[in-house]
Amino acid sequence: MTATLPQRLLRDMLRIRAVEEAIAERYAEQKMRCPVHLSIGQEAPAAAAGAALAPTDLAVSGHRAHAHYLAKGGDLKAMIAEIHGKATGCCSGKGGSMHLTDLSAGFVGSTAIVGGTVPVGVGLALARQLAGRGEMVCVFIGDAVLETGVFYESANFAALRRLPVLFLCENNLYSVYSPLSVRQPAGRSLAEAASAMGLNATAGDGNDVLASHDLIAAAAARIRRGEGPQFVELATYRWREHCGPMFDNDIGYRSPAEFEAWRALDPIARLTRQLLAGGGIDNAWLAATSGAIKDEVDAAFAFADASPFPGPEAAFTDIWSPEVAACRR
Amino acid sequence: MTATLPQRLLRDMLRIRAVEEAIAERYAEQKMRCPVHLSIGQEAPAAAAGAALAPTDLAVSGHRAHAHYLAKGGDLKAMIAEIHGKATGCCSGKGGSMHLTDLSAGFVGSTAIVGGTVPVGVGLALARQLAGRGEMVCVFIGDAVLETGVFYESANFAALRRLPVLFLCENNLYSVYSPLSVRQPAGRSLAEAASAMGLNATAGDGNDVLASHDLIAAAAARIRRGEGPQFVELATYRWREHCGPMFDNDIGYRSPAEFEAWRALDPIARLTRQLLAGGGIDNAWLAATSGAIKDEVDAAFAFADASPFPGPEAAFTDIWSPEVAACRR
Amino acid sequence: MPSMTYGEAIRDALAVALARDPAVLVYGLGTPDPKGVFGTTLGLQATFGADRVFDMPTSENAMTGIGVGAALGGLRPVLTHQRLDFALLSLDQIVNNAAKWRFMFGGRGSVPLTIRMILGRGWGQGPTHSQNLQSWFAHVPGLCVVAPTTPEDAKGLLLNAIFGEDPVIFLEHRWLHNVTGEAPEGFYRIPFGQARRLRAGADVTVVAMSLMSLEAAHAVDHLAREGLSCDLLDLRSLNPIDWPAIDASVRRTGRLLVVDAGQETGGVAGEIIAHAATRLWGDLRAPPRRLAMPDAPEATSPALTAAYHVRAEHIAAAIAEMLGRSTDTTPLVAARRFPHDVPGDWFRGPF
Amino acid sequence: MPSMTYGEAIRDALAVALARDPAVLVYGLGTPDPKGVFGTTLGLQATFGADRVFDMPTSENAMTGIGVGAALGGLRPVLTHQRLDFALLSLDQIVNNAAKWRFMFGGRGSVPLTIRMILGRGWGQGPTHSQNLQSWFAHVPGLCVVAPTTPEDAKGLLLNAIFGEDPVIFLEHRWLHNVTGEAPEGFYRIPFGQARRLRAGADVTVVAMSLMSLEAAHAVDHLAREGLSCDLLDLRSLNPIDWPAIDASVRRTGRLLVVDAGQETGGVAGEIIAHAATRLWGDLRAPPRRLAMPDAPEATSPALTAAYHVRAEHIAAAIAEMLGRSTDTTPLVAARRFPHDVPGDWFRGPF
Ligand SMILES: Cc1ncc(C[n+]2csc(CCOP(=O)(O)OP(=O)(O)O)c2C)c(N)n1
Ligand SMILES: Cc1ncc(C[n+]2csc(CCOP(=O)(O)OP(=O)(O)O)c2C)c(N)n1
Ligand SMILES: [Mg+2]
Ligand SMILES: [Mg+2]
């Protein structure tokens, strides 16, 4: 029996969280030797987007991209191997956690410069539009991206050409340890700023995965109808530290009370309660799903562990095309 | 007898136009060997700002800055000498038409990269605010600046810190030969885009110098009351080619009819008619004012002509501070 | 081969590319306007449509990233900056995305994006309209950098850029746009990494690029009349550099002068000299030498540019000095019948 | 003199500057946050107030231009980028405004803006968090570039940057932050353009900078135990460069090795070698040599960084080879008791 949409959303969120928690647990082993930015607590926007987008749609993202990659259908083993620096990684070990790609899933790439893939996503949308193909591009961004000039430049061009692009903004209130109040004027919403650039903008509760899905699906439908670029802002919250596996409510940039308030809105617990109450799932489904996810995650780590490191010569390949590389020798 | 505000505005516009027309007339002599961007037809915003700002207020501008420099009180002789590449120029011959400065008039500088002085103006406003001084900064921009990322970044910070800065935008519909329609989405106003960044934005008829003055003065008053950064958009039109002395309605990027329609709105003719009709000036005033301006312009060109060129060694000075330059020897 | 200007050769390359492959896009500020980027894009929009040939907002950074995305999406975009200086706004996209994409994703995806940058000079272009940061681009792993001198090379290298698989910085000097030469018709590619020998000679190796290759050719021809024989290499490609050609020439002549089209400190000439000093030590019979723009912005006043640029007479004098000879360079100076701050009689300002 | 880490020395310099002159501003992403830019800004906001010590939006380009404007308005701003890589977004403001303002306005106005850029390395920093584009900055007329190695120099050069009248790129290597040394208390300035002799010797001149000076010192000490005597200059200032010190040393030793903290092609080492080859030809007794990062981005996997960076053993081997000797570098390698991709035991990731 195929999964219902709520089941799919719950399963995808559970899977993302399980992966992230496994990374967090094992990070101290010092085998994942690269920065990791976890999405624990903010799985809903990714899962909602993954379900609202077609497999042939494209996506790009930034530094906190594990969830986006997984929700879009990116290969889990290749991601875990990449974080371990292995040759079997999705970037053959060259990119690490902040560079994920799975072209077969339409996840073109995530990069580590804030705002850096925003125009790349718009350019992909331009290519799709010119090819006369119906696919759209989803650009995952955080709240800090609304501070980068390149966002406004990209949004302007997307609006000018009515490109099939969705800017999906996870507003988790912080950029690293900096609250919105030290970065953007009080009282201005992200969606308003986007809307003034010519994007059709909506905003919603990013911890309500069903509502998030509806917003994104509606925006996607508008894009497919040729109504031009859309912006969806989803309010959510990162539970762990900005970068790394720990909790950091003790260091002083946000209050434990704030954290607890947001944790109470846990999108996974919420949907689970809802579905259990409404009969959308039962405990057997939950156990089976969690069990399958656990197995999959364990297998991915085992795969990564068993995979070879790239040879040292690979540090110097894939820089130029083969023809140009040949004449640099 | 001191001039009334309308008299001052008319005089300043007449003076700007006379200077610009003199440049245009003499450009073919090939003694002004640098690009020149003339403001003929769009003198009103500059004159209005010049009158609304206090002498101690600061201003920065871009490539089309003659009018702003003159309206702010910049030294005419030094500007004409600069365009002639003379040692007596306001940049000692190093900057030319696109780099004007007169610190004694509060005109800090104009530069040639579109949007380049926008953050500089914001930084000057930050310095003024921290010094607890009442002065404000006026940043002159064109419509194309609303396409640059740096504008949005700068506006965001100005709004965040409630800085005493006025963005004065002359919307003349074109960037070089490109109409707004190929650069910004239809139906979005510049003022709206600015407003969404947290700037208090108003818009008006930039060929009505009195109305322009009122808008700017009101914005300046809000700044002085601590209400934070303001944006004023003024609709106007450049009569001559983007760069250089000629008319260019024949080359096809805009219609002669459009040009004629805007020329009929000539801000100088309009105010002249108004003042003559209302008794604010008479023909004698006009003749005397024009005569004085002509003399001043002729004197400026004579000054430039008579001035020496900088010595060739000056090409290599003023790069580093004297201390650092000394150890590079 | 038909004769055409350098500017026409570029336009021809763009037209050939657009006709050959629907994946080719041509855009940039003013691309479809009546001036057509100094004539290099004139008429292309009318022929190939506004979807593929288009203007853009003054958004250099995003429009570069959009080129990266379009390239990843299967297109072959050509973005033009009317001055290299404007590209400073887009270095994040050039360096962190275009140049690194192939590497950081382990070879999954390539960015065939061509970025034309026009180098300004003279007629009061001034400090921010006349920079040549070619050595910056040549420093970046993953970028190719070319700076053609002749119409034939401009067309062939531009087509190679467009149809290759690397991001390419294509440097065209404003003062070359009106220079005439023969160039083949139709489609052809000139591979990167190959210098062109403009003059063959035995006494000294002269390496130059872009406009400096023309100045060097004048100097070399002048010295030839005085019996000095120079091997003049037009570098064409600044990354990859044709080390075999340079090495072979220096091995024969034992002497090396590099004439840089950029500023001295940290320039391409320094890199070539460092290469020679470290790898051709035993072949050098005299200290290598370089001529370059001084470490100063270009000022606006013509009085301040008169002694700023390297010209044929300086090159000739330097070569003669390296050979322990003297030369009378007055004919070289006298041959120029127009002011020092314009490329020729045809130029009357303002740009 | 008290002993402190390099990071503490930077914090000390900022505190001294803020206390000394109300015109000093300190800002950048995370400046007042609980981590305080790797500790270098900890507590400064509490002491000096949020007007003068503040966080910023992720708007690198505007925030640089705002620094330019603030400097023109009489302030002395210090802007920090947690990685040099982020500064790529701000090159227009750095090059076209900060570096050129004094020149293009004929000396009317100067821009005493200090831009700290932290250089990343190891622990999977990867392609866009570990670039050192020092040679780009050193190529720009009007900029000063310093890259201190020791706490004393970090503090003295930072104070010189803040209280000088030029825009300064201040490069601090993340791997130096925990290195300890003595540094004077209170206010002092170390002028730019002066190299520091770290070791005196007669056989070969070694020029290095930043973290590479430490690696070179290990190599030189190792070789000293084998009877080879090296003159090790820590460049400190990459523009202006202390040519008199380099020249004097090369004149004595006749041999030159430059160890570059950036990538090879178009790097600072190439410039120094070009200088030596063109100006010290007669003094060189052997071909000069350079060691540098390869022309490749730094990959993320530790397997791909193991053979990527220049370390003491490579420097020692190169020097020995230049002197026709051999050396056993195993002790140098054995002395490092922690993985190759971290600066020391204290570092456990992620940044
Ligand atoms: C241009 C640039 N500046 C600074 C950084 C450092 N940095 C990494 S992540 C980050 C925070 C981004 O915040 P946001 O977009 O809200 O995403 P979140 O981390 O909250 O998911 C910053 C500033 C960077 N990577 N790139
Ligand atoms: C960053 C940058 N890109 C492109 C240019 C070329 N350019 C010079 S003026 C100009 C037009 C600007 O238009 P606008 O701001 O509307 O001012 P206007 O010329 O209409 O007064 C352009 C694109 C430039 N100087 N800087
Ligand atoms: Mg955030
Ligand atoms: Mg305009």
Brief write-up:
The complex is a heterotetramer, with 2 copies of chain A (329 residues) and 2 copies of chain C (351 residues). Chain A is α/β, with parallel strands linked by helices and 329 residues long. Chain A has helices spanning 5-27, 43-52, 66-71, 76-83, 118-130, 149-160, 190-196, 209-224, 256-263, 267-278, 283-306, 322-328, and strands at 58-61, 107-110, 137-142, 165-171, 174-175, 178-179, 200-205, 230-235.
Number of helices of chain A: 12
Rounded Rg of chain A: 20 Å
Q: How would the global form of chain C be characterised?
A: globular
Strand residue content of chain A:
5-15%
The helix/strand series of chain C, from N terminus to C terminus, equals EHEHEHEHHEHEHEEEEHEEHEHEHHH
**Sheet of most strands of chain C:** 7 strands, mixed
Q: Let me know the CATH homologous superfamily of chain A.
A: Thiamin diphosphate (ThDP)-binding fold, Pyr/PP domains
| Backbone structural class of chain A | alpha/beta
Bound molecules: thiamine diphosphate, magnesium ion
The CATH top-level class label of chain A: Alpha Beta
Any idea what the CATH superfamily of the largest domain in chain C is called?
Answer: Thiamin diphosphate (ThDP)-binding fold, Pyr/PP domains
Secondary structure: number of strands of chain A: 8
CATH fold descriptor of chain A = Rossmann fold
